From TrEMBL:
Protein name according to UniProt: Mevalonate kinase
PANTHER family listed in its UniProt record: MEVALONATE KINASE
Pfam families: GHMP_kinases_C, GHMP_kinases_N
Broad class of enzyme this protein falls into: transferase
Biological role stated in the UniProt entry: Catalyzes the phosphorylation of mevalonate to mevalonate 5-phosphate, a key step in isoprenoid and cholesterol biosynthesis.
Source organism (scientific name): Cnemophilus loriae
Length: 398
Protein backbone atom coordinates (compact mmCIF):
# COMPACT_ATOMS: atom_id res chain seq x y z
CA UNK A 1 0.00 0.00 0.00
CA UNK A 2 1.42 3.36 -1.03
CA UNK A 3 -0.05 6.29 0.90
CA UNK A 4 1.99 9.37 -0.09
CA UNK A 5 1.56 12.02 -2.78
CA UNK A 6 5.07 12.93 -3.97
CA UNK A 7 6.91 13.85 -7.14
CA UNK A 8 10.21 12.83 -8.71
CA UNK A 9 12.17 14.90 -11.22
CA UNK A 10 15.24 14.28 -13.39
CA UNK A 11 17.15 16.63 -15.70
CA UNK A 12 17.76 16.43 -19.42
CA UNK A 13 21.26 16.68 -20.84
CA UNK A 14 23.33 18.46 -23.44
CA UNK A 15 26.75 17.60 -24.82
CA UNK A 16 29.08 20.46 -23.98
CA UNK A 17 32.03 19.22 -26.07
CA UNK A 18 33.06 16.04 -27.85
CA UNK A 19 30.18 15.37 -30.25
CA UNK A 20 31.07 12.82 -32.94
CA UNK A 21 34.68 12.58 -31.72
CA UNK A 22 33.38 10.48 -28.81
CA UNK A 23 32.29 7.77 -31.29
CA UNK A 24 35.97 7.40 -32.17
CA UNK A 25 37.26 7.05 -28.61
CA UNK A 26 37.73 10.74 -27.75
CA UNK A 27 36.50 12.49 -24.60
CA UNK A 28 33.00 14.00 -24.42
CA UNK A 29 31.55 16.17 -21.65
CA UNK A 30 27.83 15.77 -20.94
CA UNK A 31 26.09 18.19 -18.57
CA UNK A 32 22.72 18.15 -16.82
CA UNK A 33 20.22 20.61 -18.25
CA UNK A 34 17.83 22.35 -15.88
CA UNK A 35 14.84 21.47 -18.01
CA UNK A 36 13.32 18.53 -16.19
CA UNK A 37 10.87 15.67 -16.43
CA UNK A 38 8.46 15.39 -13.50
CA UNK A 39 6.65 12.28 -12.29
CA UNK A 40 3.80 12.61 -9.80
CA UNK A 41 3.13 9.50 -7.74
CA UNK A 42 -0.02 9.09 -5.67
CA UNK A 43 -2.23 6.32 -4.31
CA UNK A 44 -4.54 4.82 -6.93
CA UNK A 45 -7.72 2.79 -7.06
CA UNK A 46 -7.30 -0.56 -5.33
CA UNK A 47 -6.18 -3.26 -7.76
CA UNK A 48 -5.29 -0.79 -10.55
CA UNK A 49 -2.02 0.64 -11.82
CA UNK A 50 -2.26 3.63 -14.15
CA UNK A 51 0.21 5.74 -16.10
CA UNK A 52 -0.44 8.98 -17.97
CA UNK A 53 2.01 10.74 -20.28
CA UNK A 54 -0.07 13.50 -21.86
CA UNK A 55 2.93 14.86 -23.77
CA UNK A 56 2.98 11.74 -25.97
CA UNK A 57 -0.69 10.81 -25.68
CA UNK A 58 -0.42 7.86 -23.29
CA UNK A 59 -3.20 7.09 -20.80
CA UNK A 60 -3.16 3.45 -19.74
CA UNK A 61 -4.51 1.50 -16.78
CA UNK A 62 -4.17 -2.19 -15.89
CA UNK A 63 -5.49 -4.59 -13.27
CA UNK A 64 -2.64 -5.52 -10.95
CA UNK A 65 -3.57 -9.28 -11.02
CA UNK A 66 -3.20 -9.21 -14.84
CA UNK A 67 0.23 -7.60 -14.52
CA UNK A 68 1.23 -10.16 -11.92
CA UNK A 69 0.26 -12.98 -14.27
CA UNK A 70 2.28 -11.40 -17.09
CA UNK A 71 5.28 -10.83 -14.86
CA UNK A 72 6.43 -14.46 -14.90
CA UNK A 73 6.96 -14.25 -18.67
CA UNK A 74 9.49 -11.42 -18.51
CA UNK A 75 11.06 -11.64 -15.05
CA UNK A 76 14.71 -12.43 -14.43
CA UNK A 77 15.75 -14.94 -11.78
CA UNK A 78 17.59 -14.30 -8.55
CA UNK A 79 18.82 -11.04 -7.08
CA UNK A 80 21.98 -10.45 -9.08
CA UNK A 81 22.38 -8.17 -12.07
CA UNK A 82 19.33 -6.38 -13.44
CA UNK A 83 17.83 -8.56 -16.20
CA UNK A 84 18.49 -7.37 -19.72
CA UNK A 85 15.40 -6.74 -21.85
CA UNK A 86 15.21 -9.67 -24.29
CA UNK A 87 13.35 -9.72 -27.56
CA UNK A 88 10.84 -12.37 -26.51
CA UNK A 89 10.09 -10.44 -23.33
CA UNK A 90 9.41 -7.25 -25.24
CA UNK A 91 7.32 -9.13 -27.81
CA UNK A 92 5.15 -10.47 -24.97
CA UNK A 93 4.72 -6.96 -23.60
CA UNK A 94 3.83 -5.56 -27.03
CA UNK A 95 1.19 -8.23 -27.46
CA UNK A 96 -0.22 -7.51 -23.99
CA UNK A 97 -0.33 -3.73 -24.60
CA UNK A 98 -1.55 -3.94 -28.20
CA UNK A 99 1.61 -2.36 -29.62
CA UNK A 100 2.43 -3.32 -33.20
CA UNK A 101 5.74 -5.09 -33.87
CA UNK A 102 8.37 -2.54 -34.87
CA UNK A 103 6.34 0.44 -33.61
CA UNK A 104 8.79 3.21 -32.73
CA UNK A 105 6.51 6.16 -31.97
CA UNK A 106 7.19 7.83 -28.58
CA UNK A 107 3.87 6.64 -27.10
CA UNK A 108 4.61 3.00 -27.96
CA UNK A 109 8.18 3.07 -26.63
CA UNK A 110 7.18 4.93 -23.45
CA UNK A 111 4.45 2.37 -22.71
CA UNK A 112 6.79 -0.54 -23.43
CA UNK A 113 9.50 0.87 -21.16
CA UNK A 114 6.99 1.42 -18.37
CA UNK A 115 5.65 -2.12 -18.54
CA UNK A 116 9.11 -3.69 -18.71
CA UNK A 117 10.51 -1.69 -15.79
CA UNK A 118 7.38 -2.15 -13.69
CA UNK A 119 7.29 -5.93 -14.11
CA UNK A 120 11.05 -6.54 -13.91
CA UNK A 121 11.43 -4.38 -10.79
CA UNK A 122 8.39 -5.90 -9.06
CA UNK A 123 9.65 -9.42 -9.86
CA UNK A 124 12.84 -8.65 -8.00
CA UNK A 125 11.71 -6.46 -5.12
CA UNK A 126 7.99 -7.09 -4.57
CA UNK A 127 4.67 -6.03 -6.05
CA UNK A 128 4.13 -2.48 -7.27
CA UNK A 129 1.16 -1.23 -5.22
CA UNK A 130 -1.94 0.42 -6.70
CA UNK A 131 -0.66 3.84 -7.73
CA UNK A 132 -1.37 6.54 -10.30
CA UNK A 133 1.71 7.78 -12.18
CA UNK A 134 1.58 11.01 -14.16
CA UNK A 135 4.58 12.23 -16.15
CA UNK A 136 5.05 15.73 -17.57
CA UNK A 137 8.20 17.16 -19.13
CA UNK A 138 9.77 20.50 -19.92
CA UNK A 139 11.96 18.65 -22.44
CA UNK A 140 10.96 18.33 -26.10
CA UNK A 141 11.08 14.76 -27.40
CA UNK A 142 13.42 13.74 -30.20
CA UNK A 143 15.69 16.79 -29.82
CA UNK A 144 18.74 14.98 -28.43
CA UNK A 145 18.20 16.42 -24.94
CA UNK A 146 17.86 13.13 -23.04
CA UNK A 147 14.08 13.23 -22.62
CA UNK A 148 13.74 9.43 -22.73
CA UNK A 149 16.50 9.00 -20.13
CA UNK A 150 14.93 11.57 -17.80
CA UNK A 151 11.68 9.60 -18.09
CA UNK A 152 13.46 6.30 -17.39
CA UNK A 153 15.29 7.77 -14.37
CA UNK A 154 12.03 9.14 -12.89
CA UNK A 155 10.31 5.79 -13.48
CA UNK A 156 13.15 3.80 -11.94
CA UNK A 157 13.23 5.99 -8.83
CA UNK A 158 9.45 5.90 -8.38
CA UNK A 159 9.04 2.15 -8.95
CA UNK A 160 12.01 1.20 -6.77
CA UNK A 161 10.66 3.44 -4.02
CA UNK A 162 7.10 2.07 -3.99
CA UNK A 163 8.47 -1.51 -4.06
CA UNK A 164 10.68 -0.76 -1.06
CA UNK A 165 14.00 -1.33 -2.85
CA UNK A 166 15.09 2.23 -1.98
CA UNK A 167 13.96 4.58 0.76
CA UNK A 168 11.55 7.51 0.59
CA UNK A 169 14.00 10.08 1.98
CA UNK A 170 11.59 13.05 2.06
CA UNK A 171 10.88 14.01 5.68
CA UNK A 172 7.76 15.84 6.86
CA UNK A 173 8.15 19.56 6.14
CA UNK A 174 10.98 19.13 3.60
CA UNK A 175 10.53 20.36 0.05
CA UNK A 176 13.16 18.14 -1.63
CA UNK A 177 15.40 15.19 -0.82
CA UNK A 178 17.93 12.99 -2.59
CA UNK A 179 18.84 9.34 -2.28
CA UNK A 180 22.12 7.85 -1.04
CA UNK A 181 24.93 7.08 -3.46
CA UNK A 182 24.11 3.37 -3.25
CA UNK A 183 20.45 4.06 -4.03
CA UNK A 184 21.38 6.36 -6.92
CA UNK A 185 23.52 3.58 -8.38
CA UNK A 186 20.51 1.24 -8.28
CA UNK A 187 18.25 3.89 -9.86
CA UNK A 188 20.80 4.41 -12.63
CA UNK A 189 21.14 0.70 -13.38
CA UNK A 190 17.37 0.30 -13.81
CA UNK A 191 17.05 3.52 -15.81
CA UNK A 192 19.65 2.09 -18.17
CA UNK A 193 17.40 -0.94 -18.72
CA UNK A 194 14.55 1.41 -19.58
CA UNK A 195 16.83 3.18 -22.06
CA UNK A 196 17.69 -0.20 -23.58
CA UNK A 197 13.99 -0.83 -24.21
CA UNK A 198 13.65 2.55 -25.94
CA UNK A 199 16.97 2.82 -27.79
CA UNK A 200 18.35 -0.72 -28.06
CA UNK A 201 22.03 0.02 -27.42
CA UNK A 202 22.42 3.33 -25.54
CA UNK A 203 25.76 4.57 -24.19
CA UNK A 204 24.47 5.01 -20.64
CA UNK A 205 25.53 8.67 -20.56
CA UNK A 206 22.02 10.17 -20.65
CA UNK A 207 20.64 8.13 -17.75
CA UNK A 208 23.85 8.72 -15.73
CA UNK A 209 23.48 12.50 -16.18
CA UNK A 210 19.79 12.23 -15.26
CA UNK A 211 20.68 10.29 -12.10
CA UNK A 212 23.67 12.22 -10.77
CA UNK A 213 23.30 15.60 -12.47
CA UNK A 214 26.26 17.96 -12.75
CA UNK A 215 28.66 16.96 -15.51
CA UNK A 216 30.17 13.67 -16.68
CA UNK A 217 33.20 12.76 -18.73
CA UNK A 218 32.62 9.92 -21.18
CA UNK A 219 35.36 8.08 -23.05
CA UNK A 220 35.39 4.60 -24.59
CA UNK A 221 32.49 3.41 -22.46
CA UNK A 222 33.85 4.78 -19.17
CA UNK A 223 31.69 7.37 -17.37
CA UNK A 224 33.37 9.60 -14.75
CA UNK A 225 31.57 12.39 -12.84
CA UNK A 226 33.46 15.69 -12.77
CA UNK A 227 34.69 16.55 -9.28
CA UNK A 228 33.05 19.94 -9.12
CA UNK A 229 30.76 21.66 -11.59
CA UNK A 230 29.62 25.28 -11.62
CA UNK A 231 26.09 26.17 -12.62
CA UNK A 232 26.22 28.07 -15.92
CA UNK A 233 23.40 30.06 -17.49
CA UNK A 234 22.67 29.26 -21.12
CA UNK A 235 20.20 29.78 -23.89
CA UNK A 236 19.07 26.48 -25.38
CA UNK A 237 17.75 26.83 -28.92
CA UNK A 238 15.93 24.21 -30.95
CA UNK A 239 16.21 24.95 -34.66
CA UNK A 240 13.38 22.45 -35.22
CA UNK A 241 15.33 21.11 -38.21
CA UNK A 242 15.01 17.29 -38.15
CA UNK A 243 18.14 15.21 -38.62
CA UNK A 244 19.27 11.61 -38.60
CA UNK A 245 22.06 10.93 -36.09
CA UNK A 246 22.85 7.69 -37.93
CA UNK A 247 23.35 9.49 -41.26
CA UNK A 248 25.47 12.23 -39.67
CA UNK A 249 27.73 9.74 -37.85
CA UNK A 250 28.20 7.77 -41.09
CA UNK A 251 29.11 10.98 -42.93
CA UNK A 252 31.81 11.82 -40.39
CA UNK A 253 33.30 8.32 -40.64
CA UNK A 254 33.32 8.56 -44.44
CA UNK A 255 35.15 11.89 -44.33
CA UNK A 256 37.75 10.52 -41.89
CA UNK A 257 38.38 7.51 -44.16
CA UNK A 258 38.71 9.81 -47.18
CA UNK A 259 40.99 12.43 -45.58
CA UNK A 260 42.61 10.82 -42.52
CA UNK A 261 45.62 13.15 -42.41
CA UNK A 262 43.29 16.16 -42.37
CA UNK A 263 40.46 14.90 -40.18
CA UNK A 264 42.33 13.05 -37.43
CA UNK A 265 44.01 16.25 -36.16
CA UNK A 266 40.54 17.83 -35.99
CA UNK A 267 39.35 14.98 -33.80
CA UNK A 268 42.46 15.33 -31.63
CA UNK A 269 41.73 19.04 -31.24
CA UNK A 270 38.11 18.36 -30.21
CA UNK A 271 39.46 15.87 -27.66
CA UNK A 272 41.86 18.51 -26.32
CA UNK A 273 38.99 21.03 -26.02
CA UNK A 274 36.97 18.55 -23.95
CA UNK A 275 39.90 17.88 -21.63
CA UNK A 276 40.85 21.55 -21.29
CA UNK A 277 37.22 22.44 -20.62
CA UNK A 278 37.02 19.78 -17.91
CA UNK A 279 40.05 21.33 -16.17
CA UNK A 280 38.56 24.82 -16.40
CA UNK A 281 35.16 23.73 -15.05
CA UNK A 282 36.68 21.84 -12.13
CA UNK A 283 38.74 24.92 -11.20
CA UNK A 284 35.80 27.35 -11.38
CA UNK A 285 33.82 28.41 -8.29
CA UNK A 286 30.21 27.30 -7.88
CA UNK A 287 28.94 30.73 -9.03
CA UNK A 288 31.51 31.93 -11.57
CA UNK A 289 32.12 35.62 -12.18
CA UNK A 290 32.35 37.14 -15.70
CA UNK A 291 36.14 36.78 -15.97
CA UNK A 292 35.79 32.97 -15.97
CA UNK A 293 33.78 32.97 -19.20
CA UNK A 294 36.10 34.15 -22.04
CA UNK A 295 38.02 30.85 -22.21
CA UNK A 296 34.75 28.87 -22.27
CA UNK A 297 33.50 31.14 -25.07
CA UNK A 298 36.68 30.52 -27.06
CA UNK A 299 36.21 26.76 -26.64
CA UNK A 300 32.67 27.14 -28.03
CA UNK A 301 33.88 29.11 -31.07
CA UNK A 302 36.75 26.75 -31.91
CA UNK A 303 34.67 23.61 -31.45
CA UNK A 304 31.83 24.94 -33.58
CA UNK A 305 34.30 25.51 -36.44
CA UNK A 306 35.65 21.96 -35.97
CA UNK A 307 32.14 20.49 -36.11
CA UNK A 308 31.51 22.35 -39.36
CA UNK A 309 34.74 20.85 -40.73
CA UNK A 310 33.44 17.40 -39.77
CA UNK A 311 30.38 18.11 -41.91
CA UNK A 312 27.73 18.16 -39.17
CA UNK A 313 26.87 21.84 -39.35
CA UNK A 314 23.74 23.24 -40.96
CA UNK A 315 22.59 26.66 -42.25
CA UNK A 316 20.14 26.86 -39.33
CA UNK A 317 22.99 26.42 -36.85
CA UNK A 318 25.12 28.99 -38.72
CA UNK A 319 22.19 31.39 -38.42
CA UNK A 320 21.88 30.67 -34.69
CA UNK A 321 25.58 31.47 -34.18
CA UNK A 322 25.32 34.65 -36.28
CA UNK A 323 22.28 35.92 -34.40
CA UNK A 324 23.80 35.35 -30.97
CA UNK A 325 27.15 36.81 -32.08
CA UNK A 326 25.31 40.03 -33.00
CA UNK A 327 24.48 40.24 -29.28
CA UNK A 328 28.12 39.46 -28.29
CA UNK A 329 27.19 35.92 -27.24
CA UNK A 330 28.92 32.65 -28.17
CA UNK A 331 27.15 29.49 -29.37
CA UNK A 332 27.76 25.99 -30.65
CA UNK A 333 25.66 23.04 -31.74
CA UNK A 334 25.01 20.32 -29.20
CA UNK A 335 24.39 16.69 -30.07
CA UNK A 336 24.37 15.24 -33.55
CA UNK A 337 24.20 18.54 -35.46
CA UNK A 338 22.65 18.83 -38.92
CA UNK A 339 19.97 21.00 -37.31
CA UNK A 340 18.69 20.05 -33.89
CA UNK A 341 19.79 22.18 -30.93
CA UNK A 342 22.44 24.73 -30.07
CA UNK A 343 23.61 26.21 -26.77
CA UNK A 344 24.66 29.80 -26.02
CA UNK A 345 26.66 30.85 -22.96
CA UNK A 346 25.17 33.68 -20.87
CA UNK A 347 27.88 35.28 -18.70
CA UNK A 348 26.61 36.71 -15.39
CA UNK A 349 27.01 40.29 -16.61
CA UNK A 350 24.75 39.73 -19.63
CA UNK A 351 21.86 42.17 -19.24
CA UNK A 352 18.28 40.85 -19.21
CA UNK A 353 17.54 43.16 -22.14
CA UNK A 354 20.33 41.58 -24.22
CA UNK A 355 19.07 38.07 -23.42
CA UNK A 356 15.51 39.02 -24.33
CA UNK A 357 16.65 40.65 -27.58
CA UNK A 358 18.63 37.55 -28.53
CA UNK A 359 15.65 35.30 -27.75
CA UNK A 360 13.34 37.47 -29.86
CA UNK A 361 15.74 37.40 -32.82
CA UNK A 362 16.12 33.61 -32.55
CA UNK A 363 12.35 33.10 -32.35
CA UNK A 364 11.98 35.34 -35.41
CA UNK A 365 14.06 32.73 -37.27
CA UNK A 366 11.42 30.13 -36.42
CA UNK A 367 13.48 28.64 -33.58
CA UNK A 368 12.32 27.74 -30.08
CA UNK A 369 14.30 29.15 -27.13
CA UNK A 370 14.67 28.45 -23.42
CA UNK A 371 16.72 30.37 -20.88
CA UNK A 372 18.01 27.70 -18.49
CA UNK A 373 21.11 26.36 -16.72
CA UNK A 374 23.61 23.54 -17.04
CA UNK A 375 25.17 21.71 -14.12
CA UNK A 376 21.73 21.03 -12.63
CA UNK A 377 21.09 18.49 -9.83
CA UNK A 378 20.22 14.91 -10.70
CA UNK A 379 17.15 12.88 -9.78
CA UNK A 380 15.31 14.52 -6.89
CA UNK A 381 12.31 13.71 -4.70
CA UNK A 382 9.86 16.59 -4.12
CA UNK A 383 6.86 17.31 -1.96
CA UNK A 384 4.11 18.17 -4.44
CA UNK A 385 3.40 21.45 -2.62
CA UNK A 386 6.98 22.61 -3.32
CA UNK A 387 6.73 22.34 -7.10
CA UNK A 388 6.59 25.54 -9.12
CA UNK A 389 3.25 26.98 -10.19
CA UNK A 390 4.07 26.10 -13.83
CA UNK A 391 4.70 22.44 -13.01
CA UNK A 392 1.65 22.18 -10.73
CA UNK A 393 -0.52 23.76 -13.43
CA UNK A 394 0.81 21.37 -16.09
CA UNK A 395 0.21 18.36 -13.84
CA UNK A 396 -3.28 19.59 -12.94
CA UNK A 397 -4.13 20.13 -16.62
CA UNK A 398 -2.92 16.61 -17.37
Amino acid sequence: MWARDVAVSAPGKVILHGEHAVVLGKVALAVALDLRTFLRLRPGAEGRLSVSLPGVGVRRSWDTPCLRALRGRIAGKGRGEEPLPRRQQLDALREFAGIAAGASAPDSLATLAFLYMCLAISAKYGDVPSVDILVWSELPTGAGLGSSAAYAVCLAAALLMVCGAISCPLQEGESTARWTEEELTLINSWAFQGERVIHGNPSGVDNAVGTWGGALRYQAGKITPLKRVPTLRILLTNTKVPRSTKVLVAGVKEKILKFPAIMNPVLDSIDAISQECQSVLEAMPANPSPEHYPVLEEFFDINQHHLNVLGVGHPSLDRLCQVTASHSLHSKLTGAGGGGCGITLLPPDTSPLAVEAAKQDLCACGFECWETKIGAPGVTLHSCSSLSAQVLHALAQS
